[in-house]
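Please check what follows.
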Amino acid sequence: MVTFLITSVLILGLIGIAIYFWQKPAPHTETYELPPPKPAALFAGDAQPEVNAPAPFPTTPQVITEQVTEPVRTGPTESQENEAQSAKQAQSGATEAEHRAKKEEAIRFIESWPVSPDRKSTAKMLHLAATADDADTYCRAVEVALNVWLNSGIPDLSAAELQNLFNSEFWLLSNGTRSSGAGFVLKQTLARASRELERANNPTA
């Protein structure tokens, strides 16, 4: 009996061993191929970068080196400003020369007027003095005309008419001339002339 059991165990063991080797897979003989080597250049300096390699991300902001162009000036240039300034100075010089010429003409007429005073020449003298736009010149014309009228009279020119000439021509002077210090003296002269002429026109007043 014991012999039968031992024999059975051996037989089962052999059968199990046979089944094990029968089911064991055959050794895999397939060989794995390595990927082909990357093409290399003849010289180390000619090495090419990988085609699909991403471009490196800059670590510092890129500096813009383009030259900034100067904006176009829309205003007048320096030469144009100089020309405008020169024109202004020339105009100012011409105005001053014209003013001086008018003043000189008025003074000459004032000096020559007492030789033959009359209604027409008196009006012209006062008008020239007023258009010269000089308070001293007009004040001088008023004083000369008043003295001549008071001392010897002026043909065909009454006191009221002379006073009207004094006042009307006064307003031809510019505001600056009338409001100046000389203009203040002129106003006093006109006020005195007005009183003198009113007294002469109304001797009993």
